[in-house]
Specification:
It is a single chain. This protein is of the alpha/beta class and 420 residues long. The protein has one domain: Alpha-Beta Barrel (TIM Barrel), CATH 3.20.20.80. Helices cover 37% and strands 15% of the residues. The protein has 14 helices and 14 strands. It has an eight-stranded parallel β-barrel. Strand 6, helix 6 and strand 7 form a beta-alpha-beta unit. Helix 1 packs across helix 10, helix 6 runs parallel beside helix 8 and helix 10 packs parallel to helix 11. The protein is globular, with a radius of gyration of 21 Å.
Length: 420
């Protein structure tokens, strides 16, 4: 059986690789500009298996994630002594109090991504950034205590800033709920290792879902009609390491995606919503099953074979032929090649987002995951033992990209030629 399936895949891939690019939908590459934001004509919608603007022009998003900015991961970020972002934040609060803890987080965020970085991304020729965030950017705790701005309103200043600054540079923004209240997977990259409480059939689980509804309602209402926002990414990698049957049960059969889709649509009927298949296109239904409209299906890929990459994308396209596709995260590893990835995505009409723009964690240069890193390494904040002043220093201006970061070579050697 395995041999026969492999033969079928070889035939399908032979057809794929033989296809001329001209038979697929034409794509438009938006050249970055230093000034002038998006107008209403730039507002994106899903039309059939394409993403189009209000002029009816097909837009293929070619971008990069701004990982490790609004949600930290230990291997990407300069800290140690704790295992995930949740423990990091709770440790800072326990040691220094809420106000000081968030002051330190603000120091980190003020320096890790700045206008300089958005200038760099635009100058490289990307036309989109995916912005991962988590609920603790907006809530002080798991009880729903909102972080307020100086006027007493809910503080969305980070998202306001990145959307406004990206618009000025003709960069679209994908707003990505990387870590929801209660957490949507067991993986530490959603904020807390061993979480996965978003789906619990308990009073607490329902409270997490209510907070997720509340947060998405506020975000969607805030950016309703904003042409710089390409789409809302409801949940990053839900149940990412579980069998497909469990993924289907939790995000599909038990309705978390349908619930969040309806939540966002009630606040903003116009923007694209992206739902993640993650590693398997079988995780999501045909759109007509739920009556979903104006959606993009999203996959992520981290594997070590051009053949598997191409087979995975081809299967996804065959199962969901009428929905635009986004490769929301990828980075070639092992025997997977840059050209193999880009050629397959081009032939099948996938938009794509590299993971990730920069890193300041351990082994960042050697790990091959970033466009910008440092051969000299970074001082890592000792979250349990460093003073607040020492943490602030390590998370200060030394983290700015212009202060010691170097291009890893991936952009010039592997990416630039595919941005035209």
């Amino acid at each position: 059986m395995k041999k026969s399936l492999k033969g079928i895949w070889c035939i399908l891939l032979s057809v794929l690789l033989a296809m001329p690019l001209s038979v697929l939908p034409a794509t438009a590459h938006t050249k970055p500009a230093a000034t002038g934001g998006f107008t209403a004509d730039g507002f994106l919608v899903a039309k059939g298996h394409k993403i189009v603007n209000q002029k009816g022009e097909t837009v293929k998003l070619k971008g990069v994630n701004i990982g490790a900015w609004l949600i930290q991961e230990d291997w990407l970020c300069p800290y140690e002594e704790v295992s995930d972002n949740y423990e990091l934040l709770e440790t800072l609060i326990a040691r220094f109090g809420v106000e000081k803890a968030y002051e330190l987080i603000n120091t980190y965020e003020d320096n890790f991504i700045t206008a300089y970085d958005l200038d760099q991304i635009a100058a490289m020729g990307f036309n989109c950034v995916r912005v991962p965030f988590w609920y603790r950017n907006f809530y002080y705790d798991d009880n729903g205590s909102k972080i307020l701005d100086g006027n007493g309103g809910w503080d969305f200043s980070r998202l306001d800033w990145v959307v406004s600054e990206c618009s000025a540079r003709r960069l679209y923004v994908i707003l990505d709920m990387h870590g929801a209240p209660g957490f949507q997977s067991d993986a530490p990259h959603n904020g807390k290792k061993g979480g996965n409480g978003l789906y619990d059939k308990t009073e607490l689980g329902e409270r997490y879902r209510e907070l997720t509804d509340e947060l998405w309602t506020a975000i969607a209402a805030r950016f309703k009609g904003n042409p710089a926002v390409a789409m809302y990414d409801l949940l990053n990698e839900p149940c990412c390491d579980m069998p497909v049957t469990e993924i289907q049960r939790r995000i599909n059969n038990e309705g978390i995606y349908a619930r969040l889709y309806n939540t966002v649509r009630a606040a903003d009927p116009g923007h694209i919503i992206t739902l993640e298949c993650i590693w398997t296109p079988l995780a999501l239904p045909q759109v007509w099953v739920h009556g979903w409209k104006n959606v993009v299906y999203q996959v992520h890929f981290y594997n070590n074979s051009d053949f598997i990459f191409a087979a995975f994308l081809l299967l996804t396209r065959l199962i969901h032929p009428s929905v635009p596709m986004l490769m929301g995260e990828f980075f070639p590893h092992g025997s997977t090649t840059w050209n193999g990835c880009f050629n397959t995505m081009d032939k099948l009409g996938f938009s794509w987002m590299l993971w990730t723009y920069k890193g300041a964690g351990h082994l960042m240069w050697e790990s091959d995951w970033c466009l910008k890193g440092s051969k000299d390494g970074f001082e890592r904040a000792k979250i349990k033992t460093d003073s607040a002043e020492e943490i602030a220093r390590k998370w200060g201006e030394c983290l700015r990209t212009e202060n010691g970061y170097t291009d890893t070579g991936h952009y010039k050697n592997n990416v630039e030629a595919h941005l035209g």
